[in-house]
Design a protein that fits this description.
874 residues, alpha+beta, four-stranded antiparallel beta sheet, 11 strands, 70% helix, 7% strand
Amino acid sequence: MTSMRIPHRRTIAAGPAFERALDQVRCPSTWLRWLFLAFFLAFSSVTFAQDATKPEAGAPTEAQEKTRADAVPEVPPQAFPEQQARIDAWQATLERVERALQAESIDEATLSELRSQLAKIPVQAAGLKVSLQPRLQVVNQRIDQLKPADEQAARNQTEAIKLEQAQLQSEAAGLQGVVQQADLIALRAQQDIDAIGERRRALFTGSILQRSQSLADPSFWLELAAATPETLANQSRVVGHWFGVLVERTGRSAAGILVVVVGFAAFLLSPGRRWLSRRTSRDPSVLYPSRLAKATAAAAITLANLLIPAIAFFMLYQAMSILRVLPVDLATVLRPVFFGLTFASFFYGLSIAVLAPERPSWRLVDITDAAAERLLPVIVAMAVVNAGGLALDAFLKATYAPLSFAVAAQGLGAITLGILAMVALRFVAREENDEDTQRTSSAWRLLIPVTWAVAALTVVAPLAGFVAFGRFAALQIVFTTAVLMSLVLMLRLADEAISYGFSVQTRIGGFMRQAIGLKTNTISQIGVILAGFARLVVLMIAVMALLAPWGIQSEDLVGTFTSAFFGFEIAGFSFSPSAILGAIVVFIIVIVATRGFQRWLDGRLLPQTSLDTGLRTSIHTGVGYIGAAIAGLVAFSYAGLNLQNVAIVASALSVGIGFGLQSIVNNFVSGIILLAERPFKVGDRIEVGQNMGIVQRVSVRATQIQTFDNVTVIVPNADLISGQVVNWMHGDFSARLKIPVGVSYDSDPEQVKRVLLEIAKDNPRVLQIPEPFVSFTDFGADALQFTLFCHVGNINADAGAASDMRFEIAKRFREEKIEMPFGQRDIHLRDLASIEGLVRDLVGARAAAPATAPSPAAKAGAKRKKSPADAADE
């Protein structure tokens, strides 16, 4: 009740209070306070309205809701368990190898084992990447196809399209992840392989440059002499133990030897021995054997000297090992002994095959008989020393001889091989200095000073304390000589065998000619290409063999070449020889398909149409150019080239091409115009300037015209477009012939007209419609001029009708007594009487002049007897 009464009381007292309020408003300070209060209330109401419309924390806005509605559903990347398992296995191998490489000292065997574990990983990783690239490209193309063009298209996409796009993006992400992991695996493996190679080369360098006692030091030989009695006694005990074991196992030893003897006897009695004898025999009476015969005989001799001792030693060693005859330490000696003897036999057989002493017609290198005969004993001595060195090293190691004995043996062996190499080089240099026998190429002559330097180092290094280096250099001389002679033999054999195999006389050439339909030249070209490829392979094998002793293994080279084949980068640009090779193959396939389609058009389709020969030729040419363009585009796409980038480069080069190749482009465009408009076609008779002939071929650059003199004229197409061309067969093969004839003024014009018309009508090649006619052309200075006009059906076939009618005109005019006059001229001489007087005076002066005295030369000539020729001349 109280609260209700208070307002009532205030309402009653409102009158005086209102008046007081008006008085306060009228005051300026009061008015400002009211204005501030109103502004505060308005600002508070706006802030309250904004707070009321503001969403709660964490609630999405309207734009976010719209974006979320248009967004593609999120799908995790697709997993590829099979590929991921392979990557995980590679990663485990890499981690294991990298942990092993952290050790400070690793021997050569361990490094080789680690290298073999990593050898296939880069190639396999590259293969995995290549296998996934096509699918990744397809998925990316589908994603690009489903990508909306703008926001409106994105809002209009259905849920099914969004889900498909999300799945494709998931698959692309998974594929891209696998590809990136494969790239990383290949990079890590290659880096580890490079690290292993560096470690191996460091070990190799340290081993060959290890310093030992000098052979020129007398103290070395004194120490060696002091240790000799004890070493010999120890070796006697070891050798005695070996013989004791062999004597205890006499039966088994005899059985092993018997196996080898029986096998060798079986070979001697088998047909293979006779076949090998025929292949290895070189008849010295054959002065000019074929290149293939020389190469095959040399190869047979080399293989015989390699395989026969290798098989014999292998059978002996295996038989004694199976029968448990050999002691363990003796087996370690026999292996290098057998290897050294086998290499010595191979080296000797290779030298016999290449040098062919006493058989100059069978020799594979250009040296004389004397040089070949002098070189052969030196080569045999080098082979024996090399085999003896290997056997002695193995024997000293098996008998636990002091290190000084190994140093002495290796040093003396190196010096001996170096001296023998110098002797051989002296013989070769003497051969090269002979001017009559300088037939070797300069590349081979450069090896002589290089080998001299290596041989000198081989002799000097052991004397300076570098026995290991001297031994290595000596072995390299022998090994390099064997590789180079093998290279000569294999290059000759590859060339001749492949060239002969792809000749028409062989089964391969006959099959390719009869079954495939290749021409003889094409078969020969295939043989030449394959022979070149074989030469390249042989050279690569020789290079790898020469680099192997220097610590560069063939696996490293093959791995490097394989990685480079699948792709490498230069200055940020990626190159893939495999893709380029594939693009070339694709280009060839499309071109071959285009040629086949052209042959089908020419042989089957176009002959069934009513098109003329010229239009058929234009279609054939156009199809060829279109096929070539398609082949180029497909090849570029297969190689991974972006055609947009090619277009950008082409547009940048268009200005230079326009200036530098203006005439070529002009002819090209003119050729396209000629093929499209066809103002003349193949087979037409045209005149271009002073040349008349038959069109043989119309290409995009020039047109070939064969004149009636059987001369081919190449006319640029730009000249045919800009110049004047007379086409006798454009649209119609018929043509009008014009034969001008002149008769004397005494002839009857009507008679002449009748005779000419009869001649034209009687000719079978002249058309009667349009009818021939005769035109009285002019009153000439010497004759009445007539012209016979007639038409023929084919200007090419009936062009000789004009000549036939001229023969007939000459014949009929004689029969009809119609004279064909020729030009006559009268010569009038002025003042003829004075000319006659001058001639008479000149003749009289010569007759009255006295004879001049003969000269001394004339008198001497008169005394000589005249020859029959002079008498005849007089």
